[in-house]
Design a protein that fits this description.
Strand order of the largest sheet: 3-4-5-6-7
Oligomer: single chain
Radius of gyration: 24 Å
Helix content: 40-55%
Number of strands: 9
Largest sheet: 5 strands, antiparallel
Shape: globular
Distance between the termini: 20 Å
Strand content: under 5%
Length: 572
């Protein structure tokens, strides 16, 4: 996986490497300037040592600290000692009693026992693993709240839903399927795209599921409820509703597993980490005093390093992705690369993305959408002011040769798909000729690096670390009547690995959205006022989110986009 990834010379320009995850454009290695700060390293060590209780980690740190090293050398030796790989070698007896992991699973309580107050506190989602209202809420305020689509015409022809099945669902007993579609009250999540995945076999054989989930709002309601889940796209698929007992529990596991795989590989890895990787190179090659570099660099800080470490550890043979997810590593990465290209940069901008799914103005309680739009608008106001301050007219955009080379590079060498202004309905690759579009580009980078990544990264700890709520793979055949719903869930050793990896990834908060180094940013006086307005708006959004959550029951509060929890960049 890491072919071509090496440390560049300090004075070398950044360049692209297409061998790490073809055809994605990665930064070719990392430079000393890409190393994280001492503060970041301390935060990461603190989380790891607390969770892992791993003697190898302590030995590595102690041996390195005994030498008289620069910080850069310290990080090199951390990498050379395979520090992150040793994180996966946590002694199970340091977390839980070893006999617990070897027992046959007969109760959900056994999964709760691998959490404790010393290492990993049991997340609140453990109380809702069997709750249908919570299951529906996760589509709108969960770890992957961007996949649901509004049904505007017909259901997929692969979906076996009938009027009879539809009316079995609680809340829809007296409803008509045709009426619900006509009223725009149905919402669907179709994971046909997962058909690209091949069944994994690490550490044991697993199966790939491409389910369809249907949700709806009852007449004169606003709360989303589950209606049915179908296991596959084929005629022999199982379909179940919330009244179908054990089979419904199995289908919920199947759906959550597919949602989690799409989350890890596409929504999180591909559409935040990989989407911004081309900017790391292009921004890194800008002159130090160029206004685009000054504003974007804080939103890219740490991204090259964390992506470099990811492909060396988590997304490498034997890493967490191969061990935990349902597909082979090769097909996992094919999925990530494929969905990076579609719908591309412009299509992933918040409003066009939600509009394409029919959810931009849908009359439902959708906390991710509502919070994200507020943050996007606040960021866009700030970036518009920044662009207007440095570029007084559109002609000043086109006359900036450095800027024009920068945007052309992103579309060509950076392989950033659907990036550039449109002529009619057609995107012209790399075309940036207006202040309006440049402000949208800067907004997209900042929003993705901060808000979107926060929404899908930190929820890993709070919403995904308890395997019975969100299994990352299915370990038995759900169609087998002898198999219980609990037997589909990852075994305890896999559940422990899931807990450990996702808790680490969701625990390190570093930097704060909207907070810049003013000495490096070099703002004009009028821009300082605009920055202050931006920061005040973030505080207002924080209050608005708290106010909404104060009326929500436990488990149904959406806090992922609280500005105080959003970092400035992707640094974990």
């Amino acid at each position: 996986m890491g072919g071509g990834a090496s440390t560049n010379d300090t004075n070398a320009l950044y360049s692209y490497d297409y061998t790490i995850l073809p055809p994605v454009a990665f930064s070719k290695g990392i430079k000393p300037s890409d190393y994280p700060s001492v503060e970041w390293v301390i935060k990461v060590f603190h989380v790891h040592v607390k969770i892992a209780g791993n003697a190898k980690i302590v030995d590595i740190i102690n041996s390195i600290q005994k030498e008289d090293h620069s910080f850069g050398q310290f990080l090199h030796e951390i990498y050379d000692s395979k520090f992150l790989l040793h994180l996966g070698e946590t002694k199970k007896e340091s977390l839980v009693d070893a006999p617990l992991l070897s027992k046959e699973v007969t109760s959900i309580d056994q999964y709760k026992e691998i959490f404790n107050d010393k290492t990993c506190i049991l997340p609140a989602c453990a109380d809702f693993f069997d709750d249908d209202a919570y299951f529906a809420f996760m589509r709108l305020g969960g770890f992957n709240p961007v996949m649901i689509e509004r049904v505007t015409s017909t259901l997929p022809n692969t979906f076996k839903l009938t009027q009879e099945i539809f009316q079995k669902a609680p809340g829809f007993e007296n409803d008509q399927l045709t009426d619900a579609i006509a009223d725009g009250r149905l919402y669907i999540t179709d994971y046909k795209s997962l058909e690209i995945m091949k069944p994994g076999d690490k550490p044991v054989p697993k199966a790939v599921f491409c389910p369809i989930g249907l949700f709806g709002v009852p007449k004169e309601g606003k709360t989303l409820l589950p209606i049915a889940v179908q296991s596959h796209q084929t005629p022999d698929s199982v379909i179940a509703t919330p009244v179908d007992g054990e089979m419904w529990q199995k289908m919920r596991h199947v759906f959550n597993c597919a949602e989690a795989n799409m989350h890890q590989l596409v929504t999180h890895f591909s559409r935040t980490h990989l989407l911004l990787e081309p900017f790391v190179v292009a921004v890194g090659n800008l002159p130090e005093d160029h206004p685009i570099k000054r504003i974007l660099h804080p939103h890219l800080e740490g991204t090259a390093f964390i992506n470099f470490m990811a492909v060396k550890t988590l997304v490498s043979p034997g890493g967490g992705v191969e061990e935990l997810l349902m597909g082979t590593l090769t097909s996992d990465l094919e999925l990530a690369a494929h969905w990076l290209q579609s719908p591309g940069f412009n299509g992933l901008m918040l409003r066009p993305f939600l509009a394409a799914r029919g959810t931009l103005t849908a009359p439902i309680d959708y906390p991710y959408r509502d919070d994200a739009l507020k943050l996007w608008d606040a960021t866009h106001c700030w970036m518009t002011a920044y662009v207007d301050s440095h570029y007084p007219s559109d002609s000043s955009i086109t006359s900036d040769a450095v800027l024009q080379a920068f945007t052309a590079t992103l579309a060509s060498a950076g392989r950033l798909n659907n990036f550039g202004e449109c002529e009619g309905e057609v995107c012209v690759p790399g075309k940036v000729t207006t202040r309006k579009y440049l402000a949208e580009v800067l907004t997209m980078v900042a929003f993705t690096a901060g808000c979107q990544h926060a929404a899908v990264n930190f929820t890993q700890k709070d919403l995904m670390s308890f395997a019975p709520t969100v299994p990352l793979a299915i370990y038995a055949d759900p169609k087998d009547p002898a198999v219980t719903a609990l037997q589909l869930v990852p075994p305890l050793d896999q559940a422990l690995l899931q807990q450990r990896v996702l808790t680490v990834l969701g625990s390190v908060h570093h930097t704060l959205y909207g907070e810049y180094n003013l000495h490096k940013l070099k703002l004009k006086d009028e821009l300082k006022d605009h920055l202050e307005v931006f920061q005040l708006r973030l505080k207002e959004i924080e209050k608005e989110i708290h106010l909404r959550n104060s009326t929500c029951e436990e488990g149904f509060k959406y806090e992922a986009l609280l500005p105080s929890l959003i970092p400035q960049s992707i640094n974990v």
